[in-house]
Write a structure and sequence with these properties.
mainly beta, 2 domains, Immunoglobulin-like, 6-stranded antiparallel sheet, 1 helix, globular, 51% strand
């Protein structure tokens, strides 16, 4: 069965995990068909969505069935409920055009489809702030070759005395580069932190936008466990379903992000 997802692999000596986006075989355990929910809440109106689908047999290779006609809502800790409606022409995609995540809030998701009810909860943490972007020129790859590219660094300061989890998304000339990064602050709690987006190719004249997102532990655990589920090789762990934070028997994840964005232009 094919499923579009993101592979997460660990680079030794680097705090951030790096991931490449592509279509792969997800080693789901052989079981009855399951609902798949991907819930993404952002702090920018219009960028929030809940995707609902259903798996096929593990022996099939067709696309997932998109679930239409579901009732989808998100309720914050003050009791305010936001309805997410299905997008015309995009079966299984539910959005709310005015919703925006606020820092230090709790959001509860409810999805009702027929006789099935699924719930989840996510806590939005503080809003991360990028301090700066910078770059260095590099010739070749690891000293091999003569092509000139640029390595872009991002810097931010972690908030002290709080467990924080981060995801970085890089856009080159307005297009996501197909790579993202995740980490936690276990080794730099409350400290300034800087790292290059080492898996991103940047050339002269490129405009690079970096988006740093704060996420909760359950989303981080999902992505980290996904790395184990998609690992390959003789020393890879036994395949298992990624750790979902969706209650009711669905797989997938639900998370409320806060974010900050900064851009830099590489001179010609």
């Amino acid at each position: 069965m094919k499923m579009e997802t993101k592979i997460v692999s660990l680079f030794a000596g680097i705090l951030f995990l790096t991931a490449c986006e592509k279509v792969i075989d997800i080693p789901l355990e052989d079981a009855d068909r399951k609902f798949v929910i991907e819930g993404v809440l952002r702090d920018t109106p219009g960028e929030n969505y809940i995707l609902i689908s259903k798996t096929g047999s593990v022996y099939e290779s067709s696309n997932f069935e998109k679930i239409t006609g579901a009732s989808v809502s998100v309720t914050d800790k003050s009791g305010t409920t936001y309805l997410f409606t299905e997008v015309v022409g995009s079966p299984g995609r539910y959005t709310n055009a005015t919703f925006a995540t606020a820092p230090n809030n709790v959001y509860d998701l409810q999805v009702i489809s027929g006789t099935e009810t699924f719930t989840s909860s996510s806590q939005s943490l503080y809003k991360p702030e990028l301090d700066s972007l910078s770059y260095i020129e590099q010739v070749g790859t690891f000293g091999v070759g003569t092509d000139t590219t640029y390595l872009v660094f991002f810097s931010f300061t972690d908030q002290v005395d709080q467990e924080n989890y981060y995801r970085l998304i890089v856009y080159v000339n307005g297009v996501p580069d197909g790579t993202y990064y995740i980490t936690n602050d276990e080794l730099f709690d409350g400290q300034p932190y800087s790292q290059p987006a080492f898996a991103t190719t940047v050339e002269k004249g490129d405009t690079v936008i970096m988006e740093l997102l704060g996420m909760d532990k359950s989303a981080y655990t999902y992505f980290f466990s996904l790395s184990n589920a998609t690992a390959e090789g003789p020393f890879a762990p036994t395949p298992a379903n990624p750790v979902s934070n969706i209650e009711g028997g669905a797989i997938g994840y639900f998370n409320a992000y806060t974010s900050d964005t900064m851009s830099i232009i590489i001179p010609q």
